[in-house]
Each structure stands twice: as structure tokens, then as C-alpha cells.
Design a protein that fits this description.
This protein has helices at 2-20, 25-29, 78-86, 155-160; strands at 33-38, 43-48, 52-55, 58-61, 64-71, 98-104, 107-113, 125-138, 141-151, 163-164. By secondary structure, it is of the alpha+beta class. It has a single domain (25-169), classed as Protein Transport Mog1p, Chain A, CATH 3.40.1000. Strand 4 (58-61) and strand 5 (64-71) form a beta hairpin. The termini are far apart. The model is unreliable at 1-27 (pLDDT under 50).
């Protein structure tokens, strides 16, 4: 009887866990977010549906923004790239930004959060730097890192849904 109870309890726990739906980040945001794809940077990501395009690399809304760019970084580690950005002499992230290690779409990444003394004109900007799996060529230059700037309230959710576009599968 104890074995049957233990098995029944295990099945109930398993059903409870699976019915709660361990979802991917994409599953959670698709209804209220739009898909952004950029073939030059070979990336796609989701962003809030009410944000509008300012240009091909920047979207803004009343509650935030994102912009993408690329960093050459040849022969530099991701930590050197993150430090150079976080502790730039103009202090775009304040005096004491925080750098967190992440993995985005299987690639090493660094998330830069601003400190409380970040200049107001930076609009709570945070940054996500991700090693590009293949590198990209833009205007005859090779770039090894993608940088995503976004407001600190959206950076992590947008960044965790960033994926690299594999041109060989197209």
C-alpha cells in the first residue's frame, strides 16, 4: 500500500509540475510582444508590441527602448569588452555599474546594469554584450560581438529571447 501511495504521489507531483507549464521565455511573451529580425546582425528578438521603430536598429515606447549594435572586439575577451563599456571614461552606466555573466542562445554574454548615479540622459540604459557565434561583416569590417542597449527594466527579458539566425538553414 505504501508503494502505491508513493507512486500515486509521484505521479501527482509530476503532473502538477508539467501542468504548471515550464515555458520558454518566448512562449511567455509572444502574445504581447513583436518579433524583430535583423539579417545584417544575424539576430532576432522579441520586444513590447507598443514600441515603434525609430530606425532599423532602434525601437522605443513610453516605457522603454532597445537598440542593437556590433563591437569589433578582435582578440579581446568578452570580459574586456564588458569592462571597456561599463567603465568608459564618460561613465554612461554611473560610477559603479554591475556586470553579470549570462549565456544567451548558447553564447557567453555579459549584462551591464547601471548604478544609481547613472546620468539621467542615459534613460536607465543597460547593455547586453553577446559573443556572436560566427562574427558578422558590416561595411567590410568583421564584428565579433553584438551589443543590445535597452532600459534596465526590459534588458533582461529582451536579451534572454535574443537568438542568432543561422544562414545555413535558410
Amino acid at each position: 500500500m505504501k508503494n502505491i501511495t508513493a507512486i500515486a504521489l509521484s505521479i501527482c507531483i509530476l503532473l502538477l509540475i508539467t501542468s504548471c507549464g515550464i515555458q520558454t521565455n518566448t512562449d511567455q511573451i509572444v502574445p504581447t510582444w513583436n518579433l524583430y529580425s535583423n539579417l545584417h546582425y544575424k539576430i532576432s528578438l522579441y520586444y513590447p508590441k507598443d514600441w515603434e521603430s525609430i530606425n532599423v536598429e532602434r525601437y522605443e515606447g513610453e516605457d522603454g527602448f532597445f537598440q542593437i549594435g556590433a563591437i569589433s572586439g578582435k582578440d579581446l575577451s568578452i570580459d574586456q569588452i564588458a569592462d571597456d563599456n561599463a567603465f568608459h571614461k564618460l561613465k554612461p552606466y554611473g560610477d559603479d555599474p554591475q556586470i553579470n555573466e549570462l549565456e544567451i542562445d548558447g553564447q557567453e554574454a555579459r549584462l551591464i546594469y547601471p548604478s544609481a548615479d547613472q546620468p539621467e540622459e542615459m534613460q536607465n540604459q543597460a547593455a547586453l554584450i553577446v559573443k556572436h557565434p560566427t562574427g558578422i561583416e558590416i561595411d567590410n569590417n568583421i564584428y565579433y560581438y553584438i551589443i543590445l542597449w535597452a532600459d534596465k527594466d526590459h534588458i533582461e527579458q529582451i536579451g534572454r529571447n535574443l537568438t542568432f539566425i543561422d544562414e545555413s538553414s535558410e
